[in-house]
Amino acid sequence: MNRTNRRATVLTHTLLFIGAVLMLVPLIWTLSTSLKLPGSEFNIPVRWIPETWHFENYLEVARRVPLPRWIFNSLVVALAATAGQMLTGSMAGYAFARLHFRGRDTTFLLFLATMMIPPQVTIIPLFIIVRAFGWYDTFPGLIVPGLFGAFSVFIMRQFFLTIPNELEDAARIDGANHWQIYWRVMLPLSGPALATLGTFTFMSFWNSFLYPLVITRSEDMRTLPVGLSVFRNTFVTEWTLLTAGLIMSLIPVIIAFLLGQRYFVRGITMTGIK
User: What is the tens place of the pLDDT at every residue in 72-85?
Assistant: First the structure.
């Protein structure tokens, strides 16, 4: 039995290691290409480590495009949407987990079903609504539709269901209403779930491409993923500059994950995500 368990453990770790290596290959290729001489990206045989490291590719990206402005736009959109979803998701999650009203579970299931609708289906209605409000090519147009999300509600609802009812009962005995229970009892306990939700939401909006592409027109309102697409056109793709921009765009995502990793695994476990 021990030998069988040992073999299963070795096999599992081997498969996980192979999977991790396969997932790292695209990142390694991207980093390698960003340091190559333009025109040598697809030379045969493939050189994973360039003979000469051309860090000037990163300087060329900053010289050719308004990179600080695009980074600022992406940070504003991602941070605002993350804060909004953490607030609205926690409020709605508390209502679906703790309040009792007719049709609660049915409403939650219908709300959850919206996650199965592809974003390509809703992009045109969103565009029409945003333009009708006069938000086309503005920060409100980029941010407001992202302040709400079914995924954030699901995350927070699942977490609030794990909190013992005795805490809520004790607060109610002390005279607290639903808002006070949510704000003073539930929210301070939801750090792991909020960290998990914040990490997922920030990465999603930081990497978003289709929606900002449709909603923005001017160069000053582009987000970083949309802006970097200038290095890829119909006939030529400047791979060294594009990959250099991609590497720079990964830095905030890595920072966000490192800041939230303390609670990340715990939050995933407690919210029931598999």
Answer: 999 999 999 999 99
Sign of CA dihedral 174, 178, 180, 185: positive
Alpha helices in 45-103 (DSSP H): 56-64, 67-98
* 237 three-class SS: strand
pLDDT tens for residues 191-239? Answer: 888 988 998 899 899 999 999 999 999 989 999 999 988 888 766 778 8
SS3 category, 13: helix
Q: How far apart are CA 267 and CA 257, in angstroms?
A: 13
> What span, in angstroms and rounded, lies between the C-alpha atoms of 256 and 259?
5
CA distance 107 to 153: 12
In angstroms, rounded to a whole number, what is the distance separating the alpha carbons of residues 154 and 90? 9
The secondary structure of residue 138, as a DSSP letter, is S
Residue 212 corresponds to which amino acid?
A: P
How long a stretch of residues is the chain?
A: 274
Look up residue 50 and give its DSSP letter: -
Report d(CA 128, CA 119) in Å as an integer.
15
Q: Which pair of structure tokens corresponds to residue 172?
A: 């109610």
- Tokens 């119909």, residue located: 234
Burial 163-194, CB ≥16 within 10 A → b, else e? beeeebeebeeeebeeeebbeebbbeebebbb
pTM: 0.83
Residue 272 has pLDDT above 60, yes or no: no
